[in-house]
Amino acid sequence: MTEKAxxxxxxxGGSRGIGRAIxxxxxxxxxxxxxxxxxxxxxxxxxxxxxxxxxxxxxGGQAKxxxxxxxxxxxxxxxxxAIMDEVGRVDVLVNNAGITRDALLARMKEADWxxxxxxxxxxxxxxxxxxxxxxxxxxxxxxxxxxxxxxxxGNIGQANYVAAKAGLIGLTKTTAREYASRNVTVNxxxxxxxxxxxxxxxxxKVKTAMLASIPLGRMGSPExxxxxxxxxxxxxxxxxxxxxxxxxxxxxx
Length: 253
Ligand code: NAI
Known about the structure:
Layout: E1 7-11, H1 17-26, E2 31-37, H2 42-58, E3 62-67, H3 73-87, E4 92-95, H4 110-138, E5 141-146, H5 149-153, H6 159-179, E6 184-191, H7 197-200, H8 204-212, H9 222-233, E7 244-247
Parallel strand pairs: 1-2, 1-4, 2-3, 4-5, 5-6, 6-7
Helix pairs in contact: 1-2, 1-9, 3-4, 4-6
Bound molecules: 1,4-dihydronicotinamide adenine dinucleotide (NAI).
1,4-dihydronicotinamide adenine dinucleotide is lined by residues 12-19, 36-39, 45, 69-71, 96-99, 119, 146, 148, 191, 193-194, 196-199.
């Protein structure tokens, strides 16, 4: 066991984007962050992970990044085993890792449906299953699932992603009900249109149309999302469970 004061935080997909901002925001002297990452270009992802570790160190924390695919049960188990071997507990899990494979329903390939559902929904299921076992024994913990505005609204060209993100809200509420008696809270954060690599690939026309539909008149930043996660992970949110916190500049109300 670690010192009681040390808070162990696990963030999936922490090498860049929203996951990195969450690692940075949760960085503190009294916490230790473990994140994983996985992508096609391993070298680029490892360089990005090293940058996250540096950013966390600058913010006064300590982070470790591990290459692990959230969609593969054995890799999830190995990831958590490595953490448990080192520090023996998990206080916060942020299920953030996600991918998109956009296409209109009529043209969506089965492989793209499977890939997105595996990472964006099965991934949080596998990680939550392992984490809740640990947190139940500890009689406490926080799980924060990064869903999406589209999980509530639907979105053209994203049947797979929307199904996964809406499913994640269901997983959030069920896990919240099942683990409330163990003092584990489970909530979702649903970001709107956030400036990361995921949205950088969208055509200008789509970006312009999206911007026009945001009452606050700008894209969100990864830091905007990280603030909501930090709140749900804090003592101030102890009585909040099974909720979806929308961070979208008013794009969906
Ligand atoms: P990103 O593409 O910048 O980063 C994705 C991260 O997930 C990377 O660290 C990558 O290594 C990791 N990852 C991908 N597949 C993985 C796998 N199989 N196993 C482990 N790690 C994996 O994405 P971004 O924009 O930072 O998104 C983070 C989360 O926020 C995702 O769940 C996304 O769906 C969600 N989100 C993003 C929005 C946006 O506008 N960018 C809006 C709403 C939700």
